[in-house]
Design brief:
- It is a single chain.
- The chain is an alpha+beta fold.
- The chain is 67% helix and 8% strand.
- It is built from nine helices and four strands.
- Helix 6 packs antiparallel against helix 8 and helix 6 packs parallel to helix 9.
- The chain is elongated, with a radius of gyration of 31 Å.
- 31% of the residues are buried.
- The mean pLDDT is 76.
Length: 303
C-alpha cells in the first residue's frame, strides 16, 4: 500500500509538472552528453597514446658533411664513431631501456627519400648528401629524455629527435577538446541541478496542503519526502538514459561508420566504451537529484 501510494504520487507529480519535468530531462540529457563525450575523448586519447607511443622510435641523426653543429666540427661521422654509439645503445648503461636498434645508411635514407618524392623535386640529391641514422625503439617510450641526454653529446651525433613530437600537437588539441567539453558539462550540470531544485520546489508548494495533512496523521518525514525525491530522480535518470543512447549512436554512426572507413590507421573507441561510461552517467544523474532534493525538501517539507 505504501509503495503504491509513493509511486502514485510520483506519477501525479510528474503529470502536474510535465513541462518542468521535460525541461529537467532535456537539460540533464545535454549536460551528461557533454560529460560522457569528455570521458570518451579522454579514453580515445589514452588509447592513441598506448598505441602510437608504443610504435614510435628515437631518431639519432649522425653527422653529415658540412654540418653547422659544433658536435660535428670534425666532419662526417666515422665508422668507429658509429660503432661507439651503437655500443652505448646496445651494451652500455642504456641497454635496459633500448628494445631494438636499427641502422639506416646514407643509401637507405636516400632510397626512402626518393621513394617519397613523387614529383622529383629533390632528384638532384645524391646518397652522399644524406644523413645516416640510428632508429632506436625503446622498451618504455617515456624514457626518451634519458636516452637523448646520454647520446646527444657523443662524437658523431648531429641531433636526437623523438617521433612523439609528431603527435604532440594532436594530443594537445584533443586534450583541449576534453577540457572544453568538461567545462561545458560543469555549467550544464549546475543548470540541471538548479532546474531539478526548482521543479521539486514547485511540486512541494503545489502539494503543501497534502503534506500538511500527512504530517497531521503521523506520516514519517521520509514517506512525505520520498515522492518528491523520486520525481527528480526519475527525470534525471531519463536524461542520463538519453545521454547514453545519444553517445552510443554517435559512436556507432560517426566513429564506426564514418571515421573507421575514412582513417583506417587509428584504433578507435567502440560501443563497449560507451557502456563503461553509461553507469557513471546514471550515478551522476541520481546524485544530482539527491542533492537537489535534500537541499529543497529540508525547507518545504519540514516535519
Amino acid at each position: 500500500m505504501r509503495l503504491r501510494f509513493i509511486f502514485g504520487e510520483v506519477f501525479n507529480g510528474l503529470r502536474r509538472n510535465s513541462t518542468m519535468a521535460l525541461s529537467v530531462v532535456l537539460v540533464t540529457f545535454v549536460s551528461l552528453t557533454f560529460v560522457g563525450a569528455a570521458a570518451l575523448i579522454q579514453m580515445q586519447i589514452n588509447q592513441l597514446k598506448d598505441d602510437w607511443y608504443g610504435k614510435v622510435e628515437i631518431s639519432i641523426f649522425l653527422c653529415p658533411e658540412n654540418s653547422r653543429n659544433e658536435n660535428c666540427a670534425e666532419g662526417a661521422v666515422t665508422t668507429a664513431q658509429e660503432d661507439a654509439i651503437k655500443s652505448v645503445l646496445e651494451d652500455g648503461a642504456l641497454s635496459g631501456l633500448v628494445q631494438k636498434v636499427y641502422y639506416e645508411s646514407r643509401q637507405e635514407a636516400y632510397d626512402k627519400f626518393v621513394a617519397n618524392d613523387k614529383e622529383g623535386i629533390w632528384s638532384s640529391l645524391t646518397p652522399d648528401q644524406m644523413q645516416p641514422s640510428f632508429r632506436v625503439k625503446l622498451s618504455d617510450p617515456e624514457q626518451y629524455q634519458v636516452v637523448a641526454d646520454a647520446t646527444e653529446g657523443l662524437p658523431g651525433v648531429d641531433v636526437v629527435r623523438d617521433q612523439r613530437e609528431i603527435f604532440s600537437q594532436l594530443f594537445r588539441f584533443l586534450n583541449a577538446a576534453t577540457i572544453v567539453a568538461a567545462a561545458l558539462a560543469a555549467v550544464m550540470l549546475v543548470a540541471a541541478m538548479l532546474l531539478i531544485t526548482t521543479t521539486i520546489r514547485l511540486s512541494a508548494l503545489s502539494r503543501r496542503r497534502e503534506t500538511e495533512i500527512m504530517r497531521m496523521v503521523g506520516s514519517s518525514r521520509s514517506l512525505i519526502q520520498m515522492p518528491f525525491m523520486l520525481e527528480g530522480a526519475v527525470a534525471a535518470t531519463a536524461g542520463a538514459v538519453l545521454a547514453a543512447g545519444g553517445l552510443f549512436f554517435g559512436v556507432r554512426y560517426l566513429v564506426d561508420d564514418w571515421l573507421k572507413g575514412s582513417v583506417t590507421w587509428v584504433q578507435y573507441i567502440g560501443a563497449h566504451d560507451v557502456w563503461s561510461v553509461a553507469p557513471w552517467l546514471l550515478v551522476i544523474a541520481v546524485g544530482l537529484a539527491a542533492i537537489a532534493s535534500l537541499v529543497t525538501l529540508g525547507r518545504y517539507t519540514r516535519a
